[in-house]
Here is the input.
Amino acid sequence: MNPEIIVCVVFAVFSIFMSVQDIKTQKVSRWCSVVLLVAAVVARLVFWKGEERVGFVASACIAIAVFWAVRFITKKKLGLADVFYSGSSGALLGFDMWLASCAIACVAAGGVFWFRAHNLLAQGTYDQAAAKSPTPPSASKSRKSEILREPVPFIPCLFFGAIVAKIFYFFI
Here is the structure.
């Protein structure tokens, strides 16, 4: 069997588990994110040779460094699991596709904000009573700013970005 497919399946299984955790609790087990990172890097070191192997490991390191910087700048609003997950996706995708997946993840997170702000069904924020009753504009603005302050589970967004980037890589 193709090692790339095995790596993708392992990545997807861990990603689904971590995404569910992130959506339900806004916390992801540290062991899970570290195991995925180590598995992705080790798989690249074992199954690939030469400069390609170095490129994937370098991508993982750059991805971790970039997300660590974002975590530092935002005063730890970005979770540590997101940092490790970014490294895992860097090892899976390589630098170019990792950048694309991050852009897609940011658009997906923006979509979550948009759905929340427009009071649509997105992670249980839809309130039918609020939708039927007219609210004063000041209350509406206050609710939107409150919604925008709610944390977005970013690992599902990163997973979505990685899926789209990998599909693009495989089929286009």
